[in-house]
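Re: your question about Lipoprotein signal peptidase

S., sorry for the slow reply, the queue was backed up all week. Below is exactly what I fed in.
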Amino acid sequence: MAEAERIIGTPDIPEAAEGGEPSEEGQRSEGEPKPEGRRKIAVLFGVALFAYALDLISKMIVVAKLEHQEPIDVVGDLLRFNAIRNAGAAFGFGEAYTIIFTVIAAAVIVVIARLARKLYSLPWAIALGLLLGGALGNLTDRIFRSPGLFKGAVVDFIAPKNFAVFNLADSAIVCGGILIVLLSFRGLDPDGTVHKD
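Result:
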């Protein structure tokens, strides 16, 4: 959490000119984001909502139409839709630790929501939105699906040949993670500053 706070940082708020009236930004409370910050927050939550909705709708269709059915070939034998339930992490890893992955997903959501007010970079808003939407998608399964609260199995259905079965939430998390790595390599911080190490 402390590392995440360090990365996001606190954007500078201009001080009022000496002897003059404080500016509109100076009058704004310290925790309140600037207008451009609010736009980035809107992008973050818009991307998250879009990713979450796509994941939720796709899983509803899969459960209704594909579960307990034969796999459907989409691109020959290279890609098929095959509905399974996954109690582990993304791509089926760690099925014995369902509750731990549930706690991690919840923690990711809390950290992103808490740090959103300090966000001033559009690419970071998109990346964090993908992470948030994906985490919400799989967390919804873990809370509401069988075998029980916080132990639910995630619905996976995208099955490339010779690869693990996954879902749209997993895809959003991976894409968000890759984007964050690329932004970090380019030296772009979430607060919009660019640094060179």
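The chain has one domain: 33-185. Confidence is low (pLDDT under 50) at residues 1-6, 8-28.

Happy to talk it through on Thursday.
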